[in-house]
Amino acid sequence: MNTKPFFATLALTAALAVPSFAQETMKTKSDTDKTKTKADGMTTKTKMSDDGKMKVKGKSEAGDKMKSKTKPREDMKMKDGSMGTATSGGVMVGGAMMTANKDIVDNAAASADHTTLVAAVKAAGLVETLKSAGPFTVFAPTNAAFDKLPAGTVASLLTPEMKPTLTKILTYHVVPGRLMAADLKDGQVLTTVEGEQLTVMKNAGGVMIKDAKGGMAKVAIANAVSSNGVTHVVDTVLMPAK
Residue 4: which of 37, 29, 32 has the closest Cα? Predict the structure, then answer.
């Protein structure tokens, strides 16, 4: 079985008609087992070997670095001797291990706590965008976070008529580049794919994200690394001002 991942290079401006996204510069170079992506001041290199082992390295212009390694478990060998795709390491979210050999969407789909978010991403037509090379930083609301919204809100947002609004809300949770928890500083202002801003508030109690309307979301689980970015689980849906 060929376990080498396929990293689609998708022009983001074609996937999302938002001005801020069009301003991002992204360059990707890849072959059958290596991918190199430059975006938002971050260079990310991914390498997959024939035995299924994966290495992901990232370096920002400021010199910050990240590394992640995964390898198939021995008990995932197939009858034909090939390796499955399960890996060791990663962060546990919603009863599933988030690993760097999967993209953001595939990792989220495995989490029992993010079924509403995955349904929303599909309804907004953002699956291919969030499966592209990125990298992205995603603040991912849990099912419980969506349940905090007024009754009927989620059902309404998932209708075809509300797709523009849903897309706006979802892209407000996405920041270009790979920002690990260590990269988030108190008072830092993040410009989202949607175009508006989020503010980081960091103290001894953890990391909070403040939205444009003054709402606060707590980072419950940080640094769920994927092949095309990183996800931070939040307990509240962030809302843009417009």
Answer: 32
Cα(44)–Cα(41) distance, integer angstroms: 10
Structure pTM? Answer: 0.64
The separation between CA 180 and the C-alpha centre of its own chain, rounded to angstroms, equals: 11
Query: Using CA atoms in the order 50, 55, 60, 65, what is the torsion angle rounded to 10 degrees?
Result: -160
Give the position of tokens 């035995």. 51
Residue 161 to residues 86, 138, 169, 209, Cα–Cα distance (Å): 38, 25, 14, 29
59's CB contacts (< 8 A; 6+ apart) are 42, 43, 65, 66
Q: What CATH number has the domain spanning 12-72+90-234? A: 2.30.180.10
pLDDT in tens, 41-80: 556 565 544 444 445 566 656 565 555 544 443 333 333 3
Distances from the Cα of 149 to the Cαs of 131, 145, 153, 154, 217, in angstroms?
Answer: 27, 7, 6, 7, 13
Please state the domain extents for the chain. Answer: 12-72+90-234
